[in-house]
Specification:
alpha+beta; five-stranded mixed beta barrel
Length: about 170
């Protein structure tokens, strides 16, 4: 019974305003744990927790103990959040976009330059090994396979790797 009396004496000063501040502040900080960044819920939660502690505590030591109790509760919640995040539970929420933007659905990340393979053109700049070439009026940034090619030399596109267009001297 002594423990219950100590708790009632310790929190006997807990008015309804202080209780609302502590509960609402804790809820806002928990919400902040599930959202990215440090924004309105986190700052508001910290302010409400501090107000709740100030309204409740009779001394600095009592305020410190209340703060440590709240900190322990928030640490347990944070451990739960981190554990559920590592298991992927958070990422199964409807807020996360799960569809993939694949080529078969019509999405492409870069322009499809494969149509230029085999085309012949002329080097506009000296290719050392990178430079610019003209292919039927289309200027493209190209690279060679290591050879230097002089300006005005005829070249042929031998392969395309994403945005990288590889040319060699025409034969």
């Amino acid at each position: 019974m002594d423990v219950i009396n100590e708790i009632s004496i310790f929190f006997g000063n807990l008015g309804w305003i202080a209780a609302v501040c502590i509960v609402l502040g804790t809820i806002l900080i928990i919400i902040e744990m599930f959202t990215p960044g440090f924004a309105v819920p986190g700052i508001s939660g910290i302010i409400l927790l501090l107000l709740g502690i100030v309204f409740t505590a009779n001394s600095f030591l009592q305020g410190l103990i209340i703060f440590l109790i709240i900190l322990a509760i928030l640490t347990i919640v944070l451990i739960f959040v981190i554990r559920s995040a590592t298991k992927g539970a958070i990422f199964k929420s409807p807020l996360i976009h799960k569809d993939k933007e694949t080529a078969d659905k019509g999405y492409i990340s870069t322009s499809d330059m494969q149509v230029f393979v085999g085309k012949s053109g002329k080097a506009i700049t000296t290719l050392r090994p990178a430079g610019t070439c003209d292919f039927d009026g289309v200027r493209l940034d190209v690279v060679t396979e290591g050879d230097f090619i002089d300006r005005g030399t005829k070249v042929t596109i031998i392969k395309v790797e994403g945005r990288r267009i590889v040319v060699s001297k025409s034969k």
